[in-house]
């Protein structure tokens, strides 16, 4: 069975978007990032994706079917499915999960088989998964910018420490970002 991997890019001061909600300052190297071995490996190893409703809505969902990096089943955590189901293809399908993060991850694991489940986008989805103890790895890319405000990634996790073990990292997967990888060991009680 594969791992459940939380992946996110954040500013050095811990924000995943700026005060206006934009992520542009965190992805000036997006075209370069798509060509890195780090992302290519993640794409090869991913059997399913879980994303929050806000991350899903950041682009045109009908464009995902042939253009999204992860051509795999996508499980969108939401309170209410969209009125119109987005376009799919034989590899990329959408399932809208309304009964919580545990259900979304369980469905994604079943779809992924022995490959990884990648949790993408949405601080709330990321935090819910971490709080529930559903993730095996944490992959954080840090951009050299201090946004000073916006949405913080590591809020709302509770008061119990979460132990991490560093398992990898790359100073420069692209010339501007630093990548860190951690195994989530346990939550101290």
Concise summary:
The protein has 189 residues and is of the alpha/beta class. The chain has helices at 30-33, 37-45, 53-56, 61-67, 101-112, 123-131, and strands spanning 4-11, 46-52, 74-77, 94-97, 116-120, 137-143, 162-174, 177-187. Strand 7 and strand 8 form a beta hairpin.
Protein described:
The chain is α/β, with parallel strands linked by helices and 189 residues long. It is 24% helix and 31% strand. Strand 7 and strand 8 (177-187) form a beta hairpin.
For this entry, give a set of tags.
Dihydrofolate Reductase, subunit A, 8 strands, 24% helix, 31% strand, eight-stranded mixed sheet, 189 residues
Ends: how far apart? 27 Å
- Determine the structural class based on helices, strands and strand pairing: alpha/beta
Q: Could you name the CATH homologous superfamily?
A: Dihydrofolate Reductase, subunit A
Secondary-structure element string: EHHEHHEEHEHEEE
* Number of domains as seen in the coordinates: 1
Radius of gyration: 16 Å
Q: How many β strands by DSSP?
A: 8
Shape: globular
Main β-sheet, in a few words? Answer: 8 strands, mixed
Main CATH class: Alpha Beta
Mean pLDDT equals 89
Residues in β-strands, percent: 25-35%
Strand order of the largest sheet: 4-3-2-5-1-6-8-7
CATH fold label:
Dihydrofolate Reductase, subunit A
Low-pLDDT sequence parts: none
If helices are DSSP runs of H or I spanning 4 or more residues, what is the number of helices? 6
Using the 3D structure, state the CATH architecture.
3-Layer(aba) Sandwich
